[in-house]
Amino acid sequence: MNIIYPWQQTQWSQIESLLAQNRLPHALLLSGSKNIGKRTFAMVLAQRLLCNHPGSTACGACQGCHLMQSANHPDFHLLEPMEKAKVIKIEQVRERVAALSQTSQQGGAQVVLLCPAEDMNVAAANALLKTLEEPQGQVFFLLVSHQPSSLPATIRSRCQSIAFPVPDPAITTTWLATQSISQTSSSELLLKLADNVPLTAMLFVEEERLKTHQKILEHFVDIRLNALSPLQAATALSDVLAEHVFTTLWSVLMDLVRLAAHQSELRICNIQYLDKFKGVSQHIQQRALFAFLDELMAFKGKIDSKIALNQQLLLEDLFIKWRTI
Ligand SMILES: [Zn+2]
């Protein structure tokens, strides 16, 4: 069952208060970093709205709750990019909007969850906009967004926004310690690697993910130490998720920037690679590190775009810059 994470209590209190006053808006925009638990939060709220006997949260026992838990509720509509399409299409929005115009199947509220909302194409956003302009009875739209600035301003202005900032590490460290963390990796290290984003840290808990992190890191450092060519590294990493490559390279760059700024070694994320990092930083200027950060951001922009890309070529290009910058 979905739960409200400990770092979302403030946002949930806000929802409870709106519900108690019967003032929950028809459209909510839940925004914040990826892997912070926004979608889970939206699912909890959807179940609360569709529960037949709600308290501050859903009862968990009624027919509405059972239908939600078995992903079968006829008045809950999840809109997300269809496999491979990477966008939410107008047909998906139209189909749902048509369903909403009929009364709810269970006689209560209807909930549409869009995740991530910025993946709507322009036509889909326009179709949604029309519906948002004419809110009907007990219909609620929950828009989950990692990049709310990518949404049309017209959509944003019709939603009440609830922000999910990166939580206080003290809260997430305690939470991570209650999860099944492997003996070898402390929750502090995992959180540092994940930039304090708790569910990203959980991804690192899976040993394979940590191994991938180390593989990317070692290949990247070896390029700069002339132990590996950009082509060799790009070939070796061509089947690794581009998102993972970005996360790892970002953590390495941040460590190198910390070293260049003579910050305490305690702040180095990948501390077991300190000696290698020192070897790299001897031959690279701070200015060059920042120039490469720009390249890395451009790489992120490309992998976030909806265009199909040749990952190996993209990586080779990035690594050539890394070797020569
Ligand atoms: Zn219930």
Detailed description of the structure:
The chain has 325 residues and is an alpha/beta fold. The protein contains 15 helices and five strands. It has helices spanning 9-20, 38-50, 63-69, 90-101, 122-133, 153-156, 169-178, 187-193, 198-205, 207-224, 230-236, 242-260, 274-281, 286-304, 311-324; strands at 27-32, 76-79, 110-114, 139-145, 160-164. It has a five-stranded parallel β-sheet, sandwiched between helices. Helix 8 packs across helix 9, helix 11 runs antiparallel to helix 15 (311-324) and helix 12 (242-260) crosses helix 13. It is elongated and about 65 Å long. The model has no long low-confidence stretch (mean pLDDT 88). The protein binds zinc ion. Zinc ion binds next to helix 3.
